[in-house]
Amino acid sequence: MNLLKPNYLRNCFPLKLRQLSSVNPVKQLIEKNQQESQITSAPALTDTFGRHHSYLRISLTEKCNLRCTYCMPAEGVKLQPKDNMLTNEEIFYLAKIFVKNGVRKIRLTGGEPTVRRDIVEIVENLSKIPDLENVGITTNGLVLTRMLVPLQRAGLDAINISLDTLKSSKYEQITRRKGWERVIAGIDLAIQLGYKPKVNCVLMKNFNDDEICDFVEFTRDREVDVRFIEYMPFSGNKWHTDKLVSFKSALDVIKEKYPDFQALPNGPNDTSKAFGVPNFKGQIGFITSMTEHFCGSCNRLRLTADGNLKVCLFGNTEISLRDAIRANSSDDDMEALISAAVKRKKKQHAGEFFLSKNVNKLSSFYFTILFWPRHVEFISNGKSPDDSNWRLKISFFFLSFLPKVCFTFFT
Q: Which of 43, 100, 54, 42 is nearest to 268 (CA)?
């Protein structure tokens, strides 16, 4: 599943790391970030909260061969020019820089990464990088039966498959395409080839929450890790929260049918809370992005298809590594840029989720004051004077603080 970038503030607030329009901007940005990087002696990929980032997700393309209803319109989305996308050589170069500084796991995403024609070559190149321990891919699974064997030969270590329903008719309704049978065949082929595929399912209320136990049953005879992902509100879906199915509510549904459903061990940087039914071959995981965030142990960085580094999925602030490469920046310059970006990472959810939940309340409160009826009853003294003077004073008072609030949370 490809989440649309949260762009709603890009035209409203200046984003320091994205402004590359001044004279020789890349050089200026590099010099600034080299100075900032010298302030701390922490490794390049360690942020100010002590989190070391050893996991890089690289988006290979914006294109997708599905049109999921919660992801994009039926006609698709406007794509950037091909020249804006990272080339195979640029991906390989950046991957080596990140691995040199401590990345040990790379996952290829999209869009849909398998629509990129050089996907096998990219996997082969990445798998040859010394010290890189794991190369994985997240895919919708439509072409796995055709591509998985070449990908395995190229060095693919792990595979995630997005599948939000176990019903063929509902799959076509969700994705606006046929292919459910091919996805299931791809999962079974992955198991036969020795993988333990992760099946990612975004739970949505009144959409697929009636299939929770069906997915648990799916793990009875298949060695898969079905991972229920909490629906994450963002600007692309207008911050809707009514579709959220919480971890605890899903757990209650499962335990009602499978009373012996129990927790399993987790790794220190696992985003998924592991559970399983005794004697089932597979297991269930819960990615509690909203109700019990795991920001404190986050070790992930993201590189977009057009070469922008995102240190947090919720963040709008990005830095263009592509522009730095094409400006012939040195390896040291690239490391300085990456390090400075990582050290600006916020403690949780890029500091944005708080404001996204409260921005409407904030604006409503302000406009309530600004456009209050001209005659109000003051409980304190029982008088009802003309309120124009105090209304304007309070209005300007809140106006003076609003930009500071927005700047704090969105830069």
A: 54
Residue 114, C-beta contacts closer than 8 angstroms, at least 6 positions apart: 137, 139, 142, 143, 144, 147
Distance between alpha carbon 86 and the CA centroid of its chain, in Å? 19
At residue 275, what is the residue type? F
For residue 177, which amino acid is it?
R
pLDDT at 147 over 70: yes
**CA-CA distance, 323 to 110, in Å (whole number)?**
20
Q: 3-state SS string over 182-240?
A: HHHHHHHHHHHCCCCCEEEEEEECCCCHHHHHHHHHHCCCCCCEEEEEECCCCHHHCCC
The residue ranking higher by pLDDT, 126 or 356, is: 126
At residue 96, φ and ψ (nearest 5 deg) are -65, -40
CA 403/CA 374 separation, integer angstroms: 27
Q: How far apart are CA 382 and CA 379, in angstroms?
A: 5
Q: Where are the alpha helices (DSSP H) in 21-76?
A: 25-37
Which residues, including other chains, have CB under 8 Å from residue 196's CB and lie 6 or more apart? Answer: 223, 224, 225
Q: Provide the 10 A C-beta neighbour count for residue 252.
A: 11
Contact 83, 50 (CB under 8 A): no
State the chain's mean pLDDT as an integer. 78
Residue pointed to by tokens 């920046």: 329
Token pair for residue 12? 């409203």
Tell me: the pLDDT tens digits for 181-209? 999 999 999 999 999 999 999 998 988 99
In this structure, of 194-198, 263-267, 358-362, the range with the lowest mean pLDDT score is 358-362
**DSSP per-residue codes, 75-141:** T--PPPPGGGSPPHHHHHHHHHHHHHTT--EEEEESS-GGGSTTHHHHHHHHHTSTT--EEEEEE--
* Distance between first and last Cα of the chain: 27
Residue position matching structure tokens 């693919």: 156
